[in-house]
Each structure stands twice: as C-alpha cells, then as structure tokens.
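User: Let's play a game. I give you a shape written as tokens, and you guess the letters that built it. Ready? Here's round one.
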C-alpha cells in the first residue's frame, strides 16, 4: 500500500492537536521533498522542559508504581471501567497480571507510567504508559517509547486531558533521552505508516452462537459451523511441546532471524524472550518444536491470554481469548505450526483465537478459517518524530502492539 498526496490531503476531520506535533502529516505522505527519518533532532537534556505541564486546578500528576499491588489494583479498576479502545462487538478486559507484565518490560521506566488524579479524592482520571524498546526502522535503529493504554475518565473527555497526557509522556521520555515513539489505534490520525485488520478463528462455535456473537442462517447452521471449526484432538507436528525457560536462548535466535524479514521490527534479546514469550500462567503461553533426533529447537509460537466475564443469566461464566503473539517457523510450515496453536488453544478451553494481519500472517489466516472481526475498524500504526514517506504493507511490519 502506498500513501500519496492525493489520498491524504483531504482527511475526513481536522486534528488540531496532531497537526502541531512532529508526526507525518497528511500532505507529506508520499511527497519526495520531505526526507525520511527524524522530524526534529535531539536537543540537550538541559533544554527539555523540566517541569510538568499545567493541569486544571482540581487535578494533579501522579506516577503509577506497577510493583505496588494496591496501585496496580487501582489502575486495573480504572482501566476496566473506562478503557474502550476496541470497537469490536466482543472484546475483553485486561487483567491486573497482564498490565504488570506489559508495563514491567525489560528496561521499563517508572516515570513513563503517567497518571492524572483528582486532588481531593486521589482517584485516577487519566493514564498513559510508555514502554521503551529498541526499534529497527529499515536500516536505522532507534530507542523508542511505545505509547499504550491512553485512557481518560468517561465523564471528563470534554476537558481535553488526552493531549496534555501525551505531551507529558513525550516530555518525560525526552528527559530519558528517548526522542521517538510508536503507537497503534483504531482511530484515524495523521498519518499511519501501516494499517491492518484483526482476524479471528472460532474454536467453540456452539457457545458463541448461544451468546449471540455469531448468527446462523439457512446456509450455515450450528451443526455445520461446529463441523467447519473442528480440529485434530492433539498437535500433529512431531516434537511440538510447551516452551520452557531453558528454551529462551534458542527462541531468541529464531526470533531475531525471523524479524530480519520485516522493514520495521523490534530488536529483541534473551531478556525480551524470557519476559514476553516464556509461559506465565494466565498471561502468555508458548510452544516450541524440538527435533526428536538432534534436540534442536526449530520453531516456536506464542499467544497472549485474555478473558471476558459473561454477565447475566447465561450458563457460561467466561470467554477465553488467545491472541497470537510472536512466532518463527524454520523447520515446520507456518500453516501447520499455527494449526497446532489452534489445537492447543482448543485443548486449553479457549473459545476464540485472534491474530493480526501483520508479520505475514496472511499466509495462513484464510487457510485456517480466520474471519474478519465483525464491525471492527483497521488498526493503524503510527510513529512519533519519525517520517516514513511510503506506508508499509502489513506483511512488512514485524511489530506487534498489544
């Protein structure tokens, strides 16, 4: 996909905040006179704004200590009530364990967990997180803050706290010597460098029919849906087994080699793999393929775990989602590897597997009967203070933002 000036000079809406920020503007996309790379150069840290931005008098800045259980519980409660990024008909809430896992990434910086509280009650009314990563953009390697979990209390969204939160995160990141950012959202802002869609594979269609998530018709009955979604009773790949901590070095080598295929991808090391990919109960699960003769690990796959409580009088209490995460297939056809992921997810009681269209996932999505999420908008990926003139096709992006 290319973005040219004729497609981007007439956005549907104006973005008064983003038009003042160092991001790719609509009229710059595809224009040969604008150079690729950082939009503004780093300045001495002493010249970075030292004081926090002003807030309305009834609010104050706060930093979330993700290691403190009470503070984490407070953040979890706030996000569960007010974070509504996804437009999907059926989505999940983030668990407290997931939030700690996401925000305690290797190299995390506590000051980038930025919150706004009401002065009198000390209740959270706003939050945004930045997680530092090393990101390769073509041949350039940058230290980038991945912005995530931007959330404003539903009753305060008219007060324009979001731009102030974003600017405060940028200021704190710059004080740490971080000058670029990355973020993803369903919203249309200036200007995405990649857009993609989620797909989902139904594992328990009868349950989803009972919950009215999928509708049957004359052509597709419940019985036919169950038959179409049927999977083998066990993984079919020889040597397919649960990932163990001792696999981290081998998985790191596989992932590093796999990510070389993409124009934009994180630079990962063993600490990344140990934190994000080695299984952690209720948060992330992973599997490897080990050659039975040589004991060499040739492939791996992983998925993130989410649940959704079912309210009302339903006989079901919870839905389980497996979100496909990083994988690498060098000894096993990728379609066969991901099919085994579906099998172990089904064996583990999951109802739906979701996968993004990036990272070359289009090689298996259709074959394994993934469908587009109902009524969901594309996910747009953005860079802060970095200009890519031409957008990437989804198969050229090796970065997954949860």
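Assistant: Ready! My guess for every position:
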């Amino acid at each position: 996909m290319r973005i040219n000036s004729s497609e981007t000079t007439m956005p549907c809406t104006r973005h008064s905040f983003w038009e003042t920020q160092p991001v790719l503007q609509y009229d710059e996309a595809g224009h040969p006179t604008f150079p690729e790379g950082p939009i503004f150069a780093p300045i001495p840290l002493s010249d970075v704004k030292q004081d926090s931005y002003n807030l309305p008098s009834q609010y104050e800045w706060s930093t979330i200590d993700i290691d403190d259980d009470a503070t984490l519980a407070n953040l979890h409660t706030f996000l569960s009530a007010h974070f509504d990024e996804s437009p999907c008909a059926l989505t999940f809430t983030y668990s407290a364990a997931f939030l700690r896992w996401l925000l305690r990434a290797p190299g995390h910086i506590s000051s980038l967990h930025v919150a706004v509280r009401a002065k009198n009650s000390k209740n959270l009314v706003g939050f945004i997180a930045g997680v530092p990563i090393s990101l390769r953009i073509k041949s350039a390697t940058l230290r980038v803050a991945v912005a995530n979990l931007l959330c404003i209390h539903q009753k305060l969204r008219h007060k324009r706290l979001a731009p102030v939160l974003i600017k405060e995160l940028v200021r704190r990141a710059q004080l740490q010597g971080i000058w670029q950012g990355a973020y993803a959202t369903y919203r249309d802002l200036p200007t995405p460098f990649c857009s993609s869609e989620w797909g989902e594979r139904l594992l328990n269609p009868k349950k989803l029919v009972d919950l009215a998530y999928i509708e049957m018709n004359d052509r597709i009955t419940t019985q036919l849906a169950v038959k179409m979604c049927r999977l083998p009773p066990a993984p079919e790949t020889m040597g397919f087994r649960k990932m163990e901590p001792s696999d981290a070095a081998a998985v790191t080598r596989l992932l590093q080699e796999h990510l070389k295929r993409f124009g934009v991808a994180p630079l990962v090391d063993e600490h990344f793999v140990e934190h994000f990919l080695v299984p952690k109960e209720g948060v992330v699960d992973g599997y490897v393929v080990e050659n039975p003769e040589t004991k060499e690990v040739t492939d791996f796959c992983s998925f993130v775990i989410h649940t959704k409580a079912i309210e009302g009088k339903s006989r079901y209490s919870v839905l389980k989602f497996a979100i496909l995460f990083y994988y690498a297939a060098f000894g096993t056809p990728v379609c066969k590897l991901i099919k085994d992921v579906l099998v172990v997810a089904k064996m583990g009681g999951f109802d739906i597997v979701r996968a993004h269209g990036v990272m070359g996932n289009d090689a298996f999505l259709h074959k394994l009967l993934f469908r587009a999420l109902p009524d969901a908008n594309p996910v747009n990926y953005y860079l802060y203070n970095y200009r890519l003139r031409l957008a990437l096709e989804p198969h050229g992006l090796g970065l997954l933002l949860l």
